[in-house]
Amino acid sequence: MEDELRSEYDLKSLRVRKVGHARKSFSGLTVHLEPDVAEMFPDSEAVNEALRFLMRVMKENKYPLGNMRGND
What is the pLDDT of residues 29-42, one digit of tens each? Predict the structure, then answer.
């Protein structure tokens, strides 16, 4: 049996193949949660649901959403 593996590979020339739910897009925004926050949410759907709820509450109370950005 002949070995078809190369001695070296140029990893930059390889294409990345997405599988599963990640196939949607590589261009999506990635947000990193702190561990204490991440343990409260089982998945991204739960995070999005909580944030949409917060956005509704803020909108109903006329709190500008932009005020929360950059307050690290």
Answer: 788 899 999 999 99
